[in-house]
Amino acid sequence: MEIDRESLVANLGGAAQVASMNSEAKADALEDFMMERLNETAPGNGMSGKYPTMAEVEAQIETRRHRRGVGNLFLSHTGNVKKLPPMPAQPTLADFFKLRFNVTSNHVLQSANLAMKNGMAEEVVLACLLHDTAQELIKVDHGWWSAQLYEPYVSEKVAFAIRYHQALRFYADPAVGYEYPDLYRVLFGEDYKPAPYIEAAYQMVRNHKWYMETRMVTVNDLYSFEPGVNPEIEQFTDIIGRHFKQPKEGLGADNSAVAHIWRSIARPDSPL
Ligand SMILES: [Fe+2]
Ligand SMILES: [Fe+2]
């Protein structure tokens, strides 16, 4: 992935500000920048080169004020957080996309758009559309969190593909053109081996009837896209209508087992 260094530096507040950041803060900012500015990046290998080791990644932990798995809504790497717009009384999935999924929405919309272009089944397109959105709340185990968030409203197959895309991301499948992502060498260290539960999940999914649906989420889960492609949530209104059971009371007000998770995303400034 090629990074537009000038706009990255500008985004971070200028060269002097960047010079004052430690390497971990820069890595964080780089990751956010890639999520936020997908349309400014182009395919390439600009990120290849020197990757940290696992020991170097671990040594970075005590150089920052936050833990690595904090959700996007709860942290700003570039100045203070901003006031969030109010949510409607009965929020829909589209409302969350427009008002709360600020960092992840472009990435998942691009992924779903690509899946659509690639002729994927509607449930795969929907899984691509939803797969990373729980990262607004928490990044650790985001596949499991995202699947839990959507489970009451989508088919078992869609929830399965969302949950296990996280594990499959660590394992190449040359038969469908999926390679281990360079980004993971940056985030986890070049000598990283996935945790046993990830390996076990991969082995289970590899032999599951829904392997290919899950794999297709990873195949369409790209960080580099055509410049200027900015799909809107409305492109997916029909698919959402057919495959997402929107509660009439609104997400978070429906008394489902996950209503509090939706409320936490809607109200991240609540002190308790
Ligand atoms: Fe993901
Ligand atoms: Fe993703």
What amount of the residues lies in strands?
under 5%
The rounded Rg comes to 18 Å
Q: Which small-molecule species are bound to the chains here?
A: fe (ii) ion
What low-confidence regions span 5 or more consecutive residues with pLDDT below 50?
A: 36-48
Shape: globular
Work out the helix count.
Answer: 14
- Order of secondary-structure elements: HHHHHHHHHHHHHH
Quote the average pLDDT: 88
Number of strands: 0
Helix share bin: 40-55%
Number of domains: 1
Largest sheet: none
Distance between the termini: 40 Å
Class derived from helix and strand content: mainly alpha
Q: Overview of this structure, please?
A:
With about 270 residues, the chain is mainly alpha-helical. The chain has one domain. It is built from 14 helices and no strands. Helix 6 packs antiparallel against helix 7 and helix 9 crosses helix 12. The protein is globular and about 50 Å long. The N and C termini lie far apart (about 40 Å). About 5% of the residues have low confidence.
